Task: inverse folding
């Protein structure tokens, strides 16, 4: 794992890569800018009026391509509906203290390398969009909300699902929530599930009834942050990250009991996952955020890549992160790469580089078999 590029980012909260019309793009939403002369703190002394960065892959590195007006940026989700391509962005806040959490989050359409505003969605402390499809129906799940004194919602504040009506996304279902962070959609057999992570309210797995999602299984652990569903070794797995509780691996029981505890992956600090398919059977990458309080955070963390060994995940690689928030993986010209978003330096400043790593030669399962 070799660092090949530092991206000049400030409070990077997500990394999203995709290929459109033969070009690979990388979008990095940014939360905030440091204000000179102001104290270094997560919650004060910064400006959230900052753009999302768009890069294009050129040979062996990313080069700047565009900037998108996404104040207080938390997420970017690329998806397609038929021949059309879209990018949904989530804005947590705007302004420079006191901050405004009632912000429009913008959905863009991508045409000929340009991002055009398609729809503005009134949101309150928006954290993440997740696109999924059920048959021919397309949905966006929005995780949002916050419960802090002095923040009064004027926009809808609960997490919700939106459905595409052919022209725009319209509200489909409100999710009981308080401080939403993340959704993950997955299928096991003929059943369709949606996992929801909340910082305060119970995180849980919901099941599609045919008309809406119904509560299926509550999950232990508070301060939920993210999920990663994957299949390996004939089993279905769900990794669940928590900020102030253990990050765990759950296994689908297949006997009507839903997911059961399989392994504790780490203690507090969990933020996000990705699952990489590779010649060795796959790798679960866990990005860790911080320890301690919002007033005195410890942002220098070690994030981890796991592989299965004898039915359990074992550490395969470790890499440093500074307020790590997200990761994405891709392959180009036979090489595998990992991009990691860093949001907060050891000095509690937002200006800290995000990283592009080269992981090595990418191999398909068939190629790996031939090599052996």
Result:
């Amino acid at each position: 794992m070799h660092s090949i590029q530092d991206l000049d980012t400030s409070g990077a909260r997500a990394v999203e890569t995709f290929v459109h019309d033969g070009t690979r793009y990388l979008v990095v939403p940014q939360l905030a800018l440091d204000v000179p002369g102001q104290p270094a703190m997560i919650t004060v002394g910064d400006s959230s009026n900052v753009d999302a960065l768009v890069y294009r892959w050129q040979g062996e590195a990313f080069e700047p391509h565009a900037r998108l007006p996404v104040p207080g940026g938390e997420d970017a989700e690329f998806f397609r509906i038929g021949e059309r391509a879209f990018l949904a962005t989530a804005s947590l806040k705007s302004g420079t203290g006191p901050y405004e959490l009632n912000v429009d989050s913008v959905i863009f359409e991508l045409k000929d390398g340009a991002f055009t505003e398609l729809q503005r969605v009134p949101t309150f402390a928006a954290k993440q969009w997740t696109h999924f499809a059920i048959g021919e129906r397309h949905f966006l799940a929005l995780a949002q909300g916050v419960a802090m004194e002095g923040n009064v919602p004027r926009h809808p504040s609960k997490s919700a699902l939106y459905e595409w009506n052919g022209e725009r996304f319209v509200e489909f279902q409100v999710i009981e929530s308080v401080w939403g962070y993340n959704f993950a959609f997955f299928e096991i057999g003929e059943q369709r599930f949606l996992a929801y992570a909340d910082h305060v309210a119970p995180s849980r797995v919901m099941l599609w009834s045919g008309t809406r999602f119904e509560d299926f299984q509550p999950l232990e652990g508070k301060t939920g942050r993210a999920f990663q569903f994957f299949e390996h070794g004939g089993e279905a797995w769900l990794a669940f990250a928590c900020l102030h509780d253990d990050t765990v691996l759950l296994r689908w029981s297949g006997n009507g009991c839903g997911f059961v505890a399989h392994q504790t992956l780490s203690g507090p600090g969990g933020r996000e996952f990705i699952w990489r398919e590779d010649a060795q059977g796959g790798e679960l990458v866990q990005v860790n955020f911080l320890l301690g309080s919002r007033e005195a955070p410890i942002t220098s963390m070690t994030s981890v890549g796991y592989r299965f060994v004898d039915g359990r995940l074992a550490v395969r690689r470790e890499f440093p992160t500074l307020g790590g928030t997200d990761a994405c993986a891709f392959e180009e010209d036979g090489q595998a790469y990992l991009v990691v978003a860093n949001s907060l330096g050891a000095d509690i400043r937002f200006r800290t580089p995000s990283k592009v790593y080269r992981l090595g030669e990418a191999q398909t399962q068939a190629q790996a078999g031939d090599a052996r």
About this structure: The longest strand covers residues 114-124. Confidence is low (pLDDT under 50) at residues 363-372.
